[in-house]
Write a structure and sequence with these properties.
about 140 residues, alpha+beta, Aminopeptidase, seven-stranded mixed β-sheet, about 30% helix, about 40% strand
């Protein structure tokens, strides 16, 4: 069973950071200095599968709307619905705010976002040596 919570306590936030360190810093070689930007102004979410920390994501307001960021799922939980559960949970929370919703998707994650109402906008670009595309929520 997948459970999504707002990561509020220090213990919950540490689980989020541990997941991001494994996925982004270790697996994808993202530079540490960009991984930990905007932590204070973001709302963090933690996904657990049968009580075990499995994935995370966050959102924050920017001058362009609400930006979804840092979707990360540990290897053993990929393709089990964790990322989609995180996405749907966050969308349910932010759609009522009636603001533009967007994200920068790694190309490997583009189908997940397309399946859930996002459309690509503009050209592909590189962030942290990984190819991305900007996507806007259209539903």
């Amino acid at each position: 069973m997948i459970e999504i919570i707002n990561a509020i306590t220090k213990q919950e936030q540490q689980k989020v950071w541990d997941i991001r360190r494994v996925v982004f810093v270790i697996e994808q070689n993202c530079p540490e200095e960009i991984e930990w930007e905007f932590e204070e102004e973001s709302k963090h979410f933690l996904a657990s599968v049968n009580g075990k920390a499995a994935g995370c994501a966050r959102w924050r307001e920017t001058e362009n709307g609400i930006k979804l960021e840092r979707f990360a799922v540990l290897k053993e939980f990929r393709r089990t619905g964790v990322a989609q559960s995180l996405l749907k949970n966050i969308l349910n929370e932010i759609i009522p705010l009636n603001k533009k919703i967007y994200l920068h998707a790694q190309l490997t994650a583009k189908p997940l976002y397309e399946k859930n109402g996002f459309e690509p906008e503009g050209e592909n670009f590189w962030e942290a040596d990984i190819e991305h595309i900007k996507m806007i929520y259209k539903k």
